Amino acid sequence: MSWWDYGHIITYVAHRIPNANPFQAGIVENNATDGASRFFLATEESDGYRNLQNMGSRYVMIDNQMATGKFVPIQKWVSDTQYWYAQIAFNITSGYQVPIIVDSPKFQSCMLSRLYYDDCNGMSHFRLVYESPGSYYVSTKIADLNSYQQGYGYVPFSDRYFIPSENYTEMYDLYINTISPMPLSQSDMSQFFYDSRPPVKYVKTYEVVKGATITGTAPANESVTATVTLGIANRTFNYTQTVKADASGMFAIVVPYSTDAMQGEGYSSDVSPRSQYTITCGNSTATVAVPERAVMNGETVQVSQSLQG
Fold first, then answer.
1. Residues lower than pLDDT 50 in the chain
2. Domain check: are 143 and 186 in the same one?
């Protein structure tokens, strides 16, 4: 699954069958309930996963352009063009606020954003298997207060501006510092970076999996969290998912990553596990290993000890 622009490239270079291509097949399918547009705009993983099951997709390939400039055409194909941005107030100085435009919760919860920027954190059926070499990119907006003073109803921003570097730590620090507005320079406070997204490589590929179900017991109706540390190239990241135990204290967490070497049929993953899963409820913790076969076949893995909360 990718955007139709890349269909022939996937066919020619990878010798794989794309779900959508420049003949514009696969963009909208099954009475507009499935297809590339619906998948990338879906704000529930269950809808995205069902779409890919119907389309027969094993992988999802996304890039920087799809998450930025090409995102508008993705919306237009299914006439879902509203509420992708939100307006908030920004304090320039004490008592002086201006409205700025940020990515909305709808954007941050859609499949494209969660896969590209969030490493599928909290998802059950998608796992990262490849990132392109080269630089990391921090995607940020640039706003100009002078434009607002000229009569706009909000501070206009340039389309996403990209700052590249191969140093992940440097890029992560930049991201943290520019989530909230930060002036481009100390000598000119009228322009600022803001609303940045985490550092990412240009292309990312995910595998669609059944997922392993981690089960166990905990205090009734309490939150239970599963966490595993993963590594790829020169960075590590945590996959985390939280559920609630039911009224009888049973919990089930479907996870996409194994704690073995991730080796699917016909490929080896660039992502490697760096730990077992830590299962946490309150101050109580347990660890559990998740075999690759459990992820691929949808098997269940039992936590041996009961969490006390």
1. none
2. yes
126 shares its domain with 21: yes
- Please give the Cα distance from 211 to 264 (Å, whole number): 13
Q: What is the pLDDT of residues 42-81, one digit of tens each?
A: 999 999 999 999 999 999 999 999 999 999 999 999 999 9
Phi first, then psi, for residue 51 (nearest 5°) are -55, -50
Q: Count structural domains, the chain.
A: 3
Burial tier of 155 (Cβ tally within 10 Å: 0-12, 13-18, 19+)? buried
SS3 content of the chain, % helix, strand, coil (to 5): 20, 35, 40
Give the CATH number, domain containing residue 74: 3.40.50.12610
Question: What secondary structure letter does DSSP report for 14?
Answer: I
Structural domain boundaries enclosing 226: 210-302
- Looking at residue 236, which CATH number applies to its domain? 2.60.40.3390
Query: What's the pTM?
Result: 0.92
2 contacts 22 by C-beta, under 8 angstroms: no
Within 8 A by CB and 6+ apart from 185, the residues are none
